[in-house]
Amino acid sequence: MKTIIHRSENRGHANHGWLNAKHSFSFASWYDPTKVHFGALRLLNDDEVAQGMGFGKHPHDNMEIITLVQEGALEHKDSMGNGSIMRANDVQVMSAGTGVFHSEFNPSKDEPLRLFQIWVFPDKGNVTPRYDQQTYLPEGRKNTWQEIIKPDTQMEGDAIFIYQQAWFSLTDLDATNELSYTNKKEGNGAYVFVIDGDVEVAGEKLKRRDALGITEYENFNIKASTNARILVMDVTMIELG
Asked: How confident is the model at residue 188 (pLDDT cuts 50, 70, 90)?
């Protein structure tokens, strides 16, 4: 087993007034050559969007874009004709493929929007753009794993698919509880992101918004010191070049 720790306080930070963003991987004006990607995982942005503000219409192509709303509401519109309001526990996937435009706004007049936006390199290029959205209730992840993202080659279950050999799983652990995670595909790595709480993962102590990248493993344990929420992103360990 090999591990790499990404501490919360070492993330990139950009505060634009209307947008307060923390970057786990190099993004926009923040660049760290040691944090460009973790395998197929390209981006993990921790965004807070002010009331009535948001991202205007902008393009993407050949990227799997996953959005997890944590608090507030997110209004989504795209060039495929989709329009929706997402709230906490909602997960959205957009396969940009040959190209898509979309916008994302906080429609609330009095509540901030907090979300995670995650980009994953696809294993299929120039696919027809697609959109999907699903609600995953907290009771489905209480001291167990709740799979929210899976590969397009594995259609069983309730998880939304993306074009990559990747699986995303959430858990809400009660304090003192322990949960084991098993590698989904030989050669994949796991990027363990602590959304809330204090935990010990594979023997490493992690706090809120810390992350641990794990490779060359079969399984590992997560022990909760406090009530905690954890997201595991199990991804192909591709090399860029």
From this structure: very high
Contact 182, 218 (CB under 8 A): yes
Domain 2-235 has CATH 2.30.30.100: no
Which secondary-structure segment (H or E) carries 214?
strand 211-215
Rounded Cα–Cα distance for residues 147 and 194 (Å):
16
Mean pLDDT for 3-9 is 98
Whole-prediction pTM value? 0.97
Q: Are 190 and 234 in contact (CB under 8 A)?
A: yes
Is residue 195 predicted with pLDDT exceeding 80? Answer: yes
Alpha carbon distance 193, 191 (integer Å): 6
| Backbone φ, ψ for residue 211 (5° rounding) | -140, 155
Distances (CA, A) of 173 to 44, 114, 176, 209: 22, 21, 8, 15
**Dist. CA 90–CA 69, nearest whole Å:** 6
**Contact between residue 194 and residue 211 where contact means Cβ atoms under 8 Å apart:** yes
Q: What pLDDT does 42 receive?
A: 98
The Cα 92–Cα 20 span in angstroms is 21
Longest dimension (CA), the chain: 48
- Supply the pLDDT for residue 155: 74
Token pair for 200: 């010990």
Structure tokens at 80: 């495929």
Per-domain boundaries in the chain: 2-235
